[in-house]
Amino acid sequence: MNDLHPIDAEPRKGKPLKFIIGGLVIVAAIVYLIVSSLQANVQYFLTVDEVLEKQQAGELSGRNIRLSGAVVGDTIQYDMDTLELSFTIVHVPGDLEMVEEEGGLAAALHNAVIDPARSRLEVVYYGARPDLLQDEAQAILTGELLANGIFKADELLLKCPTKYEGSVPDQIES
Predict the structure, then answer these.
(1) Cα separation, 37 vs 25, whole angstroms
(2) Which domains can be identified in the chain, with CATH numbers?
(3) What backbone torsions phi and psi does residue 103 show, to the nearest 5 degrees?
(4) What is the mean pLDDT of each run of 10 residues along the chain (174 residues)?
């Protein structure tokens, strides 16, 4: 007869270690997939100065970027037949403290547009002309910088802080 009973059998060694290592490999693979997919979809948010600086260094070729600047009103041109909208944006500081030093966003946009020394970038966009597209509006653009130095926007968002200044009610002090 067999003297070994299931209770007396020698315990299996290394099984918990195999599960731990297997679990770590699976977690590492999931983390790698998440990180690599996020890096592929990253959009850089830049100012006009940063775009021009990175363009000279050749860092923007083929990259989808996000750009912000102030619209120069007298450069707006719209062709209703082709739906081509072109305009120039000018550098506005990306640092909130610098914007506040200029007197807020409306003042920073105004100062940017009237300053001929600020960096400028031509933009082309295909689509309907937005109602808020006007002089000193803040443009937030998503797209790519073409080899000829023109920014081809796929998405165009506009903010016009001066339009809403008077519509905000005074706050009641406690």
Answers:
(1) 18
(2) 44-161 (2.40.50.140)
(3) 105, 20
(4) 55 72 90 75 74 82 86 93 94 85 86 90 94 90 89 90 47 42
